[in-house]
Every structure is written in C-alpha cells, then in structure tokens.
Specification:
Order of helices and strands of chain B: HHHHHHHHHHHHHHHHH
Oligomer: heterotrimer
Number of helices of chain A: 19
Largest sheet of chain B: none
CATH class of the largest domain in chain A: Alpha Beta
Number of strands of chain B: 0
CATH topology of the largest domain in chain B: MetI-like fold
Number of strands of chain A: 17
Helix content of chain A: 40-55%
Chains: A alpha+beta, B mainly alpha, C mainly alpha
Low-confidence stretches of chain B: 1-7, 9-30
CATH class of the largest domain in chain B: Mainly Alpha
Strand content of chain A: 5-15%
Number of domains of chain B: 2
Shape of chain B: flat
Strand content of chain B: under 5%
Chain lengths: ~500, ~350, ~290
C-alpha cells in the first residue's frame, strides 16, 4: 500500500514537472523593442505531418517582419461544430479565427464573437483594405459593422456530374449533361457492371444531389435558413423548396431511380461518400464542384488512367452561383489582445508572396518545386504538404495562387469559364436574422431529416402520401412563420 | 463545568432533538429561538466534524472535487432559461422564460422520444443484468481456468471498439446491395431484405449492440462480488447435498442482490439519457427509422446541428435531469421502504 | 470426481453461452485487425473480410511515418493512465470508506451531495469556461487528468462493497487506538482488493480511452494522448459533412478505411496485450480477498 502511494506521488511529481516543462516551452521569448507578440489563430481541419516544419519557417519570417509568432490551433472536422462556438463563448483570447457563411458567420457575429474592424482595418492593414472591392465590405458586414476579412478568390458553386468516360462511351452516350442522359448512363452501369452500384452515395452526398435541382432552376439556398430558397435572377421570389412542383417532379424521378437500384437503399446510413466509392471503383458516378473534381481526377489518374473521369454541368441550368465573399475568411476575435498585430499578420499571409506560398503549398525544394510552366511538382514522392487541409482558403488570393502540375486537362479554363458565366448571389450581403424563429428552425431541421431526406432519395413507398406528410409536418414545425419572416426581411432588404 | 463537558452535553442535546435542546438553552438564558437554533446546528456540525476530523478530512478531497468540477458549472443551468449572448456572458444575458423548451415540447415528438429513450434504457438494463449476472455466475463456476481467462478477456474486447467502427460494420452487414446478410440470403435463393426500410427490427439490433458492448465490462463487477462470497457457505451447501442450481439460487444470487440493486439504481439515474454515439452511428440518418429508434440525444443533436443554440441545448439537458431526478427519488424511496440498506441515500 | 447430472447441464450451458458471446465479441475485432492489413481498395470492393484478399501494411506505414508523434502520444496516455488510476483509485477508496462508516453522521447527506451531480449538469459551456478561464487549465495535463479523477458511480460501488466488511473488525482496531485513516489503510484496503482491482481497472480504462477532455482542452499536439489521435482520424471523415454544408473545396487527404482500422489497432493494441497480465493479478487478488473475508 505504501509503495503504491509512493509510486503515485512520484508519478504526479513527474507529471507536474513535465507539464511545467511543456508549458514553459510556450512561454515568453526575450523581449525586443516593440514587444514580441503571440498571435493565436484557429483554423479548421487536420494539419499534415509536415505542418510543424512549415509553421517554423512561417514564424521565422513573421518574427523578422512584425515581431510576432503565429500559433495555429486546429479544430478537427469531427468536433469543430462543438468547439467553435465554445471557444468564442468562453472568452479565451482569440486573435485570428476562420469564419465562413456556412459556419454560422452571421450568428456568431451577432452573438458578439468577432471584433468589428471598421476603424482598425485601414490603419493596421492598408493593403487588405485597398484590395477589397465595395461588394466585399457590404457582404462581410453584419448590421452595419465589418467583421470578416474575406478571401479574394471567387469560385463557382456549381455542382456537376462526374462520370467515367470509358463507360459512357460503351453505352453510346455523347455527353452526360441532362437528366435523360444521366438516366441512360446510370441504367447502363446497372445493367452491365454487376459489381458497381451506379451512384454509390452516402448521407453526405445528399446536399450535392439536391443541388442538382437547385442548379437546374437557378435557385440559391445561400439566403435564408430552414429550407427557404430564392432565385439568383429574381431575389424577390421567396419559397420553401420542398413545397414546389419542381421538387415534386424531382422526387418522382428519384423514386423511379431508387426502385431501379441506382443508389444504395441504405444511402442515408452510409457514411462513405460517392467520391470515395468512385475512386475505389465501387461506384461510377457522383456530384461535386470543380475543385473537388480536379482532386478526384488526380487521384483516379494514378491507378486507373483508362477511366477518364469527366465533369458535366446540367445543360438546362440557366445560371450558376458564384461564391460570395463570406464563403471563406478570417475574423479577429472579440477577445483579441493584439488586434492590430493580428491584422498585420493576416495581411502578410494574404499578400506577401513568400508567406502565402509557404502556408498554402509548403517549403520550396522540400514540398514542391516549379516546372517550366510554373506549375508545382512533388520533390520527394510521398512528402507533400497542403495548406488546404487546414482551411487556408481563408486567406485566398488569386494573385498568388499556383496550380499543381498534374491537374485535370482544361481545369484552369473550366474554372475561368465557370467564374465568367456565374452570377453572384443577390443575397450575398444580406444576413438573415433568426432570433425570432430559433424554435421553428430547430423543428424544421428534424422534420427535414426524418421526412424530407427519404423523399429526396426516393426511398418512400407511396410518394404522394409521403409528400403530404412532409407538408403537414412542415406546417406543424412552423414553415409558415419562417417563410413570412424571410419575406419580410427580404422586402426590407430589397425595398419592397 | 469544563468546556469539553459542556460541548459534549450540547452535542448530545442536538442529537436528541430540537425541543429538548431549545428548552435547555432557554433555561440558560440564550437569545432568540431562531438564532439559537442556527447557532446550535452550526455548533453541532462543527462539533461533529471536529471530533472526527480525520474522517472528514478523508472526505474533503471528494467534496472539493465535486464542488469545483460539478457544482460550480451547475450555475450554467440558468442558460436553459436565457438567450445567451457572448458579450453579456452567462449572468447578464436576457431571460426568455420557457422559450428554449418550446422546440422540444411543441415538436409533436416529445412523448414518443421520451418513451423511446426510457424504453430502450429499460430494455438495455434488463437484458444487461440478466446477461452480465449469468456470465459472471458461469465464469465463476465453470471448470477450466484457461477457458475462463480467455473468455473473460475476449468478452472485454467490444469495450474498445468505438461506435463509429461498429456503425460501419452494421452497414456492411445489413445493406441491401452487397451486405453480408443479403449476400447470404441470395446465395440461399431467398429474397434479399431491406433492413433500413424496416423500423421494427432495429430495436433488436440496438439491444444486441448494447449487450455486445457492455456484457464483458459489466460482468466484472458481479464477478468481483461473487469472488468475495465466503467459500465456507458453498462448502456447507455441498455437504448438505445441494445441486448447483440450488447453490446459485440460494447463495450466490442473494449475495449479489445488493450489487444488483445498486447497479439498477445507478442505471436508472440515467434513464432519460441515451448513448448518443451508439444510436447515431448505428442508425445514421435513415429518417424512416427515426420513429422507432430516436432518443432525446439524437433528436436534440439534429435539431441544433445547423443552428447551435446553447439555451436550447441546456433546456433539453435540464428536462432530462429533472425527469431522472423524479424517477430516482421515487424508486429510491420505494426501495428504502423495503430495505433501507439497499437505498442509495 | 463424479460429476452430477445437473452440474453437467450447467457446465454445458455455461460453455455454450460463453463461447457464443466470446465469438460475437471476437469476430469484429478480428475483422478490424484483418482490415488494417488489407489493401485499401480491397475493403471497398470486398467489404470486411476475415482473411484479407490483398495483404498490405501500407496503412501502418502511413501512421508510423512520423513515429515521434505516435510514441509521444503513447507516453502521454501511459502517464495519464498511471497517475490518474493511482490517484483516482486512492481517492475513490478513501471517500467510499468514509461514506460507509457508521460514525460519519452526515454520510447520507454527503452521498446525496455527490450523487446529485450525476443527475444535474450545467452543460458544456460553463464547464469549459471554468476550466479554461477560471482554472487556466487549457493545454495542460491537469485538464485531462482532473475531471475524470472521481466518479460517483465508482465511489458508490466501492462503498457498497466495503459495507460487507464486518463491523467487529473495526471495533477491535478502535480499541487498540487506531484512527480512521489507519483503519482504512490497514483493514479496509487489504480486504477490498477485489473491488479495488475492478474499479482500478475501470478507472484505468477510462483514462486510456478518453478523447473527450483532450478534444476540448488540448490544442498543443505534443500533449495529445493516443485515443485522441484515433478520434481525430475517425472524424476527419466528417469533413464531407462540412462540404455538404457549403465549404466549396476538395475533400482531399481523407483517411481511408484501412487506415482507420490500423489506427484502432494501434490505439487499443497495447491494453489488449496488457489485459491478460492484469487479469492474473486480478483473479489472484479476488481469491486472496475471499480467503481473508
């Protein structure tokens, strides 16, 4: 017994010592004339193994330039939705934090999580200030105050159909760019490839699949919440997408396709994605954006160059949506102790070519090198670094963007084409105030998960009954209130 | 009179009851009744603690621990009735009455979800007790040391396997297209079976999964209790010619009763809390199954996943706590009437 | 020795039940091990197999490419488990002893005081604020060690067991002038070895498997315990959910199925190998406890 006590005391002492040591490692470095400052940044994602080295380089430079070090804390994909609000709520010091419209930017801003930048920005980060177009200021402000420093990269939110050209040609289809040709393609796979589920999708493909409908009619969902959409070219139109005749048609087709077995019956419980299945060869179709398509291409071409993955937009889509400025960006935390220095660091990361390249692509000579066309190539196979895994998109800047060598043929052109033909969302600088409809949104969220998703995927026996039930549940959950609130706020924003 | 003697008398008085002490004190000319009562209680408490200071010192770490890590954060319960704003913090944020509870109680699902949660927990509990006690009894009685040790280790393995992996396995077994179960059906020329469209079967899947995960872990507690039963009892039973079943029914099980009751009560304290990971990973987002498999934790998660609202999350937790509190206090009171030794408090 | 008929039935049913259960418990584990040494694509095409179609150590290769961080994570886990178990077990036993002594007048009040915390809970936010801003425990070992130190469940279980120690043993010690702590150390602890072993095991497993407190409070990767690595890996898949919400990027660098399995083996492997050794002590302890009792 005594021995156990001694051992435990010894262990505790050892641990305290180590704990102190670990803490001490992070403690102060010698003071310089202007005080050395530690900027605490929160990014989303999982850092690569090479991340430590890259950060060391970045910090070397930052110390020289602005006498500051950057400490990056990452919020993993499994828990960022828990931790993100916690970190802002707890009042702990946060200097830089990644923010995005899909990550509750306006909600957190209204709760007081971010520092208003109106006075600071021009003084502390003039380059950033100069680089932001008028629209950016509008979009990144909530209730009149500027909160976010957005990415400068505009990209397309268009979701396209990814198919395998080898199979497509086998079935004699010229292009998979309509529902009809898609149907033929999926049928072909179903009939001829026994080991493949045509669209081997999972729950996480639901949004992409639904976005086909959105793209088809030029709708947008980046305006309100609770299943209330609008149209890109007619912002005064405000409606609940589940209640439209277009959705009914979509659901009908889904039902037929589900019966034919184009996707797993248990799609809603499948945690693997259509993309993973496509790359592994157990699926032959999925839906995604152009950036992801490029990544898919690069992975597939390594092992199966004969598959020739292709990306098609639904021809009938009238317009596609461009990302708004609030798609990715950085905010200064309301509790930041060094907001000016944080802004300076941010400015450097965004506009300084060397630091930008380091954060995004890694160390030259170790993680990448240039080929004759200025594209990036791997130096040592297997040793790679990608800032994308930790949401560096927040400092996106097209001026310094570089492309890797083995990108999909025609990728740059396609990206440009999409950006050119895209329209920006008329609701980009509008932020929906949900204070009075929190309860309704919560209930609608459950209704959509329980009754909506199965209809989207056509997994219901009696479609008409299911639709009726969905409508009924939606009105019980308060869709009426959400719609009227949305219409009111929209009228107020666009002027009646 | 020596101070310590006086103190002892006072302590005895306090122990005897208020009236007697009150009269004694008023005889000695004490102050107001209430003031004297307070002082007397305080005096009583201090006396008690001081006279057994080692004992109470031994309790001190736990008292401090629970105070710091559980009671102080308990203040957060007020968030269930507030609309939280970071800038104003927990205490200055505005009150909003029962608004945060509306999403749950006005959803039309409150009763069903509550019922699901309670019934699942009761099912898990009953199956658990039966299996765990059986396993413990068999392991303690069955011959073959190597077999027992190996089995015990193996039964423990599921504890280490996270629900994420289990969910993946379940999908792999039951999915319609290539799942193991349906492949078997097809090879036997039978109709494949769409498990994810049939809500009725999932309660059995969940019960099996829960039993699978916890049987090994839970049986150890019963095993420890069995191992401490006096072997003389068994020997004398053997001499009396009792068969193995009689031994178990008349010796082992009665000796296990306190532990069984304790674990029953402890589990009942969580009767309205579901194991979120288990339900979420196994059922996934198959809406058709929700009516049969949804519990409060999954329901609340889905309601708030896109619009995290601290007040509403707190409200749901508060409801669960109050419900569990009422249940456990009632059950404990009943058990106390039967045999006060078995009660929790 | 003649075995009676009902004893035979009993033994047989025992063997059958235990074997069936053990099989059900072993199978998924074997599938995980098999999956960890399978070629990644094979898992997609063939599902989970007991005997991998294509053998490949690639998943382990990726994990151990940076062995320093894995070893450090192991060290953190080991230290946390050892210190947490020793301290936690001692405090649990001590508290349980005090709560079951007849001499403790307020034992029921205090038991309720502790038990109440099992029922009511202020939620994550105030707890987080307390730990990070009140106690300044962010990024420290203490944040991972302290909150799990005492559990009402274990205290009450231990108390229950200790109640079975006859009062007379204590009486004779009291006459000899032993104080409470001395009685606890010299009488209660040795007689409670079975329950101490059990609770000790549970506490140790709790620390070993914990990823929740590291997830909340630790940002510094040097302090990550083993299970937290695994947790992050298993959940990186939720990146797809983020994309679904609207992140308009490529879902690159997704850990594949094989790697998740390999990670599971790496994280839980050691304790599996350790368990038989602990068990030896465990059973022997149970016997000694029974004899003394």
């Amino acid at each position: 017994m005594k021995k156990l006590c001694c051992i435990s005391i010894g262990l505790i002492l050892m641990m305290t010592a180590l704990g102190g040591f670990a803490a001490g490692q992070k403690a102060a470095q010698p003071d310089k004339a202007t005080e050395r400052v530690e900027i605490i940044a929160y990014l989303l994602g999982e850092p690569d193994t090479e991340f430590g080295e890259v950060m060391a380089e970045v910090n070397e430079q930052l110390v020289e330039r602005v006498n500051a070090t950057l400490t990056v804390n990452t919020l993993g994909w499994g828990d960022y939705d828990t931790k993100y609000p916690l970190i802002l709520a707890s009042g702990e010091p946060v200097d830089l934090i990644y923010a995005a419209n899909w990550n509750n930017f306006s909600v957190e801003a209204r709760k007081g999580g971010y520092l208003p930048l109106d006075d600071l920005l021009q003084k502390a980060a003039p380059k950033i200030y100069a680089s932001l177009p008028e629209a950016a200021f509008n979009e990144c402000s909530i209730d009149g105050k500027l909160y976010m420093v957005p990415t400068l990269k505009s990209s397309s939110l268009a979701h396209g159909l990814v198919v395998r050209a080898d199979l497509r040609k086998e079935y004699g289809i010229d292009a998979v760019d309509s529902w009809e040709s898609l149907g033929r393609y999926l049928e072909g796979v179903k009939a001829n490839e026994p080991g493949i589920i045509p669209f081997n999708a999972g729950i996480n493909d639901t949004g992409m699949y639904a976005s086909l409908l959105v793209n088809e009619f030029g709708w947008t969902w980046n305006c309100f919440a609770g299943g209330v959409f609008s149209e890109l070219q007619d912002p005064k139109s405000v409606f609940a997408w589940y209640l439209t005749p277009e959705f009914e048609e979509f659901a009908g087709r889904s039902r037929q396709w589900a019966d034919k077995g184009y996707w797993p019956k248990a799609v809603l419980s499948n945690k693997l994605t259509g993309k993973d299945a496509f790359i592994a060869g157990t699926g032959a179709f999925f839906i995604t954006n152009i950036t992801d398509m490029n990544d898919t291409y690069r992975q597939v071409v390594k092992d199966h160059p004969d598959w020739e993955p292709e990306w098609y937009l639904l021809e009938s889509a009238p317009v596609t949506e461009l990302t708004s400025f609030t798609q990715d960006g950085f905010c200064i935390g309301a509790t930041s102790k060094h907001p000016e220095r944080a802004l300076q660091v941010l400015e450097l990361l965004k506009h300084d070519e060397e630091l930008y390249t380091l954060m995004y692509y890694g160390i030259k000579g170790k993680h990448w090198d240039e080929n004759s066309q200025g594209q990036l190539v791997e130096v040592t196979p297997g040793v790679s670094y990608s800032g994308e895994s930790i949401s560096v998109w927040g400092f996106g800047n097209p001026e310094h963007t570089r492309y890797p060598a083995n990108i999909m043929p025609g990728y740059e052109e396609k990206v440009k084409w999409l950006v050119d033909m895209g329209v920006s969302n008329p609701y980009a600088s509008f932020s929906f105030d949900i204070n009075s409809i929190q309860t309704d949104l919560a209930n609608l969220s459950n209704v959509y998960a329980q009754y909506g998703n199965p209809i989207v995927w056509g997994l219901v026996e009696d479609l008409d009954a299911a639709l009726a039930q969905l409508k009924d549940q939606m009105s019980k959950a308060g869709i009426g209130k959400v719609l009227s609130e949305a219409k009111e706020q929209s009228a107020g924003y666009f002027g009646g | 009179m020596a101070p310590s003697t006086w103190a002892r008398i006072m302590a005895t008085m306090a122990a005897l009851g208020t009236d007697v002490a009150n009269r004694t004190l008023s005889l000695t000319g004490g102050g107001s009744a209430a003031g004297m009562a307070r002082m007397r209680i305080g005096y009583g408490i201090t006396r008690e603690i001081w006279s057994k200071k080692t004992l109470y010192a031994m309790l001190l770490p736990a008292v401090v621990f629970f105070l710091v890590f559980h009671y102080i954060p308990l203040a957060g319960i007020i968030l269930a009735f507030k609309r939280y704003e970071y800038a104003k913090g927990m205490f200055l944020s505005p009150w909003n009455g029962l608004e945060n509870f509306r999403f749950f109680f006005c959803s039309g699902k409150a009763l069903r979800i509550t019922l699901n949660t309670v019934l699942y927990n009761l099912a898990f509990l009953s199956v658990g007790i039966v299996l765990q006690v059986s396993v413990a009894v068999f392991i303690s009685e069955v011959p073959g040391r190597a077999f027992k040790k190996t089995t015990q280790s193996i039964l423990f393995l599921p504890y280490f396997i996270s629900w994420v992996l289990v969910g993946a396995f379940v999908y792999n077994i039951f999915n319609y297209e290539f799942g193991a179960f349906n492949s078997l059906m097809r090879s036997l020329d039978l109709e494949p079976f769409n498990a994810y469209g049939r809500p009725e079967m999932w309660k059995y899947v969940l019960m099996a999964a829960n039993a699978w995960k916890w049987t090994g872990y839970g049986s150890i507690i019963y095993l420890a209790s069995i191992m401490s039963i006096d072997p003389e009892l068994y020997d004398s039973a053997k001499i009396d010619g009792a068969g193995i079943l009689q031994v178990i029914i008349h010796i082992t099980l009665p000796k296990l009763k306190p532990t069984i009751v304790l674990l029953l009560l402890l589990n009942l304290s969580r009767v309205l809390r579901g194991d979120f990971q288990m339900f979420y990973q196994i059922v996934g987002d198959s809406g058709q199954l929700f009516d049969a498999t949804d519990v409060i934790d999954t329901f609340v998660f889905r309601a708030l996943v896109r619009n995290f609202n601290i007040g509403m999350a707190s409200a749901a937790g508060f409801y669960q706590s109050v419900f569990c509190f009422v249940i456990i206090v009632s059950v404990n009171a009943v058990i106390r009437k039967v045999n006060s030794d078995y009660a929790l408090f | 020795m003649k075995v009676s008929r009902d004893r035979l039935y009993f033994n047989t049913s025992g063997y059958v039940l235990l074997t069936v259960l053990a099989g059900a418990c072993l199978l998924p584990f074997l599938l995980i091990v098999a999956g960890s040494v399978s070629d990644e694509t094979a898992i997609y095409t063939d599902g989970y197999r007991l005997i991998p179609r294509q053998f490949s150590l690639k998943s382990y290769g990726i994990i151990f490419r940076a062995p320093a961080s894995i070893l450090r994570a192991y060290a953190v886990t080991l230290m946390l488990t050892a210190a947490g178990t020793a301290l936690g077990l001692f405090l649990t036993a001590m508290t349980a002893f005090a709560l079951q002594t007849g001499d403790c007048k307020y034992r029921n009040v205090l038991a309720f005081y502790m038990y109440f915390t099992m029922l009511f809970n202020g939620g994550l936010t105030p707890f987080y604020i307390l730990m990070v801003r009140g106690l300044h425990l962010k990024n420290t070992y203490w944040a991972m060690l302290l909150p799990s130190l005492l559990s009402v469940w274990f205290i009450l279980l231990t108390r229950n067991y200790m109640k079975s120690i006859p009062r007379e043993v204590y009486e004779s010690a009291k006459i000899d002038g032993a104080g409470y702590f001395a009685m606890f150390l010299r009488i209660t602890m040795p007689l409670s070895v079975p329950v101490l072993a059990t609770i000790g095991l549970f506490i140790a497993l709790g620390y070993w498997n914990d990823w929740y407190y590291p997830m909340l409070f630790v940002e510094d990767s040097r302090l990550y315990p083993m299970q937290f690595f695994l947790y992050r890996l298993l959940n990186a898949a939720r990146f797809s959910e983020a994309v679904m919400k609207g992140a308009n990027v490529a879902t690159a660098n997704m850990p594949k199925e094989g790697m998740k399995m390999a990670m599971a083996v790496v994280a839980t492997g050691p304790i599996i190998f350790l368990y038989p050794f602990i068990q030896r002590f465990f059973i022997r302890g149970l016997m000694i406890g029974a004899v003394k009792g």
